[in-house]
Amino acid sequence: MIKISLSKTEIDQVKFERFHHPHPFVQKKMEVIWLKHLKYSHNQICEIAYLSKRTIIRYLKDFISGGLDKLRKIEFNKPQSVLIEYSGTIKEYLRENPPGTIKEAVSVIESLSGFKRSETQVRKFLKSLGMKRIKVGTVPAKADPAEQENFKKKVWIPV
Question: Which of 96, 104, 118, 131 is the most buried (most CB within 10 A)?
Answer without folding.
Answer: 131
